[in-house]
Design brief:
Layout (H helix, E strand, L loop, with lengths): L3 E2 L2 E4 L14 E4 L2 E2 L10 E9 L27 E11 L9 E7 L3 E4 L10 E2 L19 H14 L6 E4 L7 H10 L3 E6 L2 H9 L4 E4 L6 H8 L4 E5 L4 H9 L1 E9 L20 H4 L2 E4 L9 H14 L6 E4 L5 H10 L5 E5 L6
Parallel strand pairs: 10-11, 10-13, 11-12, 13-14, 14-15, 16-17
Antiparallel strand pairs: 1-4, 2-3, 5-6, 5-8, 5-17, 6-7, 7-9
Helix pairs in contact: 1-2, 1-7, 4-5
């Protein structure tokens, strides 16, 4: 039995409040795996190439009381997340050796997954990615879950109409930068907020009509009033808290608010309250939470349209990619602080193709 090194991103203890700390709460730990061991019926062995670091990974750290779509991480066990991988060995008729697979797996260099895993049915074979000419990392970014979130959230929940005004918070992030560009493709006026002047400049570069640094304004409400003189018809919320409150103040009647995330509240010790919820009723505002799994049936349409935009140069996409699995813990924590620019991913290994 030959053991192969298999580093894993591991939860060291639950984190009910505050920001996680590398080495105290999460870290990359040494482990091994026998790549020649027989697989149980239905199982596949994967070699991980790219790991996605996403804001949703904060909720499962809180244990059973996370209020998340996702089950809690287990102390001492590998964390899970979106990955791009290749099939090394298969005992499942659906998967063949060398298939390129995108989905939620354990975060480690090699992983075995079988049908008993709740995320097994989310695995997608993406062999067309091998010859697309686009970066492999796009499979977990603009053409993966963040891209699907932007596309389905705006088009299916936001229901845009040409000429309307769209406001996007965390607009330079993995989801926001694509939301804004889709909005422009649909004929909207697009306004975005971000946390640095460099990110604001990027938003203007990729076609946002207006953008501002929320850290430099004394009143987000007043800034939105200035930049959205005709009011807000769609607010794509990645942040919650003060920005949600300001969007409500500036919302038009029958505005739609796709609720994607509330990262401003993920690491706070006390709840962040929105004080103007009474305005929802007279303004007839619709706030709607959603999950990408609600729209899996539209993913082929999403992939075709967004791939076309990328190849035609109609949209751009910014990524930050850490250089090895050793940097995975810090990369995840950086997402919670907003230190990354665009989509944060981690390189693990090269594919064979």
């Amino acid at each position: 039995m030959v053991q192969t090194s298999n580093k894993q991103l591991t939860l060291l203890k639950n984190i009910p409040h505050g920001y996680p700390v590398v080495g105290e709460h999460i870290d990359v730990k040494e482990s091994t795996i026998d790549l020649e061991a027989p697989l149980e019926e239905g199982a596949i062995l994967l070699k991980i190439h790219i790991i996605s670091a996403d804001p949703f990974m904060r909720s499962p750290m809180k244990g059973n009381d996370s209020g998340s779509f996702f089950p809690p991480y287990l102390i001492g066990q590998p964390m899970y997340g979106m990955t791009v991988s290749s099939v090394i060995k298969s005992n499942n008729a659906k998967f063949n050796k060398d298939d390129l697979v995108v989905g939620i797996t354990n975060i480690e260099e090699y992983t075995v997954i079988d049908p008993s895993n709740p995320f097994f049915n989310w695995l997608e074979i993406r062999n067309k990615t091998k010859t697309s000419g686009l970066p492999l990392s796009y499979a977990v970014s603009v053409l993966g879950m963040p891209g699907q979130t932007a596309y389905h959230g705006l088009l299916q929940v936001g229901k845009p109409k040409e000429g309307e005004t769209l406001y996007v918070s965390a607009a330079s992030g993995a989801v926001g930068q694509l939301v804004g560009q889709i909005g422009k493709q649909r004929g909207l006026k697009v306004v975005g907020s971000a946390g640095s002047d460099e990110k604001v400049a990027y938003l203007k570069e990729i076609g946002f009509d207006e953008a501002f640094n929320y850290k430099k304004t004394s009143s987000i409400t007043n800034t939105l009033k200035e930049l959205c003189p005709n009011g807000i018809d769609i607010y794509f919320d990645n942040v919650g808290g003060e920005q949600l409150e300001a969007a409500i103040d500036n919302a038009n009647h029958f505005a739609r608010f796709p609720l994607c995330g509330m990262i401003s509240t993920y690491n706070t010790k006390e709840p962040v309250r929105v004080r103007n919820m009474m305005s929802l009723m007279p303004k007839h505002i619709t706030l709607e939470g959603f999950s990408v799994s609600d729209y899996f049936q539209l993913n082929d349409q999403f992939t075709e349209e967004v791939t076309g935009w990328l190849k035609e140069g109609k949209i751009q996409y910014r990524e930050t990619i850490a250089g090895s699995i050793d940097e995975a813990a810090q990369a995840v924590v950086d997402v919670f602080y907003g230190k990354n620019f665009g989509k944060q991913s981690i390189y693990v290994s090269d594919p064979s193709f």
